[in-house]
Every structure is written in structure tokens, then in C-alpha cells.
Amino acid sequence: MNRRRLLQSLLASAAWLPALDLLAGPRLLGARSEPSGDGLRLVLDLDGPFHYRTFSLSAPERLVVDLEGAGLGAPLASPAPSGPLRGLRSGRLADGGTRLVLDLAEPVRLQAFALEPQAGRGHRLVLDLHPARAPAAAPAVAAAKASGKGRDILVVVDAGHGGKDPGALGSRGEREKDVALLIAQNLARRIDRQPGFRARLVRNVDVFIPLRQRVEVARRCNADMFVSVHADAAPRRTASGASVFALSEHGATSTLARFMAQRENGADLIGASGNLPLQDKDPALAKVILDMSLNATIASSLDLGHSVLRSLGGITRLHQERVDQAGFAVLKSPDIPSILVETGFISNDADCRRLHDARHQQALAGAIFDGLHGYFRQRPPVGSLLAAIREQGKA
Ligand SMILES: [Zn+2]
């Protein structure tokens, strides 16, 4: 359980409520929303005067509202998704305040103002959200407009191992790097066949590529998703089935440390990606923003992983019913949802036979694709063809 989930379950737990009374500051009583022109008005009701600050994050789009020194009067119910708002989450700040995170369907222009008690209403924070064009997404949106449709969702497909690194071995010397490449190539072809999607293979031949470089490929081409394809091995020859891994918080923490170190050295990869301009923020704030972004990416990767695992369950035995979390170097990208799929055990004779079967390779690729397609249908990236199709469906 990561910190955020722990926090959410604590907030949702009634046993925790008595502690709320000990808070001296104002309490947040609830959130309500109403449509407002082309956007949405969100009103937060508090039982006393308060201080607040806001900032926004992208990829995925979020708006953060910190209520300094304010506690929660009751577990906060998220208003139903409407307009640019997809959902509302809350958590405690270290200094006792409350942080609200608004998950957004698109970048917004925010107007926020506090209202004093009046006409039977108490203290309120009003947040007016209107659709805005994010600077980072502007070229894609412009291109979409020019061509009359949205951009392709770019999926970077990484075939595990290669060259001098054979990966796991089967009982007759079968090599993980070979089946991983065949399944990855199948997956890339499947992705490319789907309108609105495009694949890029990290390797298309039997070559050794260091782990760090694989992630760099995804970051350089601004990928929407990174999927690494592998086959497992275990000393216990009976172990079989597929598994899906997402980045763990531990992995994220060490990534954070590395990124912060790079930032200090002036090599601001994150700023360069255009998604997280941190250069002008003070280091402590930059760390908080990056930490939140990593947590959001972990959450996205877990959602993506669940979708792919469910889909894989339709065609193969699952080794684990849950998405596992690990600190694989190949998954450590701070702003791109990433998963690692173990397609089966090459050390298990039955799995190994199937992993070498062309039709099963195709089925695995199809299942992984169905999983990621389902994920992106729910959360189409801004400016993508999928997002345009979704909008047309609403109109
Ligand atoms: Zn592997």
C-alpha cells in the first residue's frame, strides 16, 4: 500500500474521525459543484476563515488546492465527474493542512476566490474552472485542428534483454530475449493497426541496450506509455502464468533522488520534457511537485497494469492476480505510465512451448493491446484522436 492509498483509506475510515476534533484550525465541511458556462464551479464549504494556495500539474492534468491549517470535518465525497473535473481527492499536509487534488480531463484556466459568510452561507472557497489550452499540448491540438482529427497515442514497446543478455533460459536453452522480441513485434504491429495509436519498438533486432537508454527512448519521443515485454523464470519449474508489474514507491523514491541530483547539476530532464517546469521553483516545492507527479504516475501505471492483467487473464493463466510493484530500472520514468509484462515462465515446459507458438504470441500481444486500449479509452490523452472521438460522442 503506498502512502497515498494509506492516506485515502485512513481518511475514509470512521475510526479516524475522533482525531479530527483535535484540530484547531478551520474544517472543510464539503465540496459541491455546478456547471458554469463552458466550465465548472467548485465550491468548498469551511467552518471558519482560511488561507489557501493553488498550483497546477500536467501529464496527467491536475489542480492542487492547499488549505493551510485546515482539517477535514468529515471524509470528503468527490463531486460526480462533470465538465473538466474527473474527480477530487484529499490528503493531509505534513503541517496539518489539507491538500485537495482535482483530477482534470483537460488543462484549465482557474479563477479562485474566498467568500465570507453571507445569506445563510458560511466561509467558502470558489474555484471556477474553464477549459484552457496547455502550452505543452498546443502544437498537438493545433495539428489536430489542421488535420481535422487528433494525434496518435504513442506507445513505446520494449522487448526485454537482447544481444549479450539472453534473459531467462528454458530447459532446452530457449532464450527469453527471442520470445520477448517476437511478442513485442506482434504488439507493435497490433498497435499500429489501430487508428489513433502508434508504436515504437526500443529494439527490433537482437541487440543489447542498457536499461537506462530504454527509458530514454520513451522520454525523448514524448511517449504516452511504456510497456516492457518479458518472460519469467523460477527455480521452481512448476511456476507458470503471466504477471504485470508497475513501479513501486521505493523505486520512485530512488528515481526522485536521482532526478533531484540531476536538477542540481543543471541537467533538468523533467523541465526539458515541457511537462514539469521546475527550474524556477524552490527546491522544497519542486520536490513536493515531483513526488506528487510520481505518485500520480504510479497510480496511472497501476490502473494500466490492472487493465492489461484483466485482459491477459482471458487468454492465459495468471501467476499473480494483482499488479505487482517493483523498482525495475526499466520502469523508472517519472512522467510516463509504465508497466512490465511477464508473459509466462520460460522455465516452465508448458509455458515455454506456448511462448514459442506464433498464435499464442499473437494472442498475448492482442491481450496486452486490449488492456492498454481499454485504459486509454477511459483516459484519452489531451489532443489525441481518442479524445476527439470521445468529445464527438458527447456532442
Ligand atoms: Zn526479463
Automatic annotation (TrEMBL):
Where is the MurNAc-LAA domain positioned along the sequence? Answer: 215-373
* E.C. code: 3.5.1.28
**Cellular component GO terms, alphabetical:** outer membrane-bounded periplasmic space
Q: Which SUPFAM superfamilies match?
A: Zn-dependent exopeptidases (SSF53187)
Q: Which GO terms describe its biological process?
A: cell wall organization; peptidoglycan catabolic process
Highest taxon listed in the record's lineage: Bacteria
Task: Give GO terms: molecular function aspect only.
Answer: N-acetylmuramoyl-L-alanine amidase activity
Q: Is-annotated flag, keyword Methyltransferase?
A: no
Reaction it catalyzes: Hydrolyzes the link between N-acetylmuramoyl residues and L-amino acid residues in certain cell-wall glycopeptides
Keyword Disulfide bond carried by entry: no
Task: Give UniProt keywords alphabetically.
Answer: Cell wall biogenesis/degradation, Hydrolase, Periplasm, Signal
Its subcellular locations are: Periplasm
Q: Which family does it belong to?
A: Belongs to the N-acetylmuramoyl-L-alanine amidase 3 family.
Name of this chain's protein = N-acetylmuramoyl-L-alanine amidase AmiC
- Say which species the protein is native to: Pseudomonas delhiensis
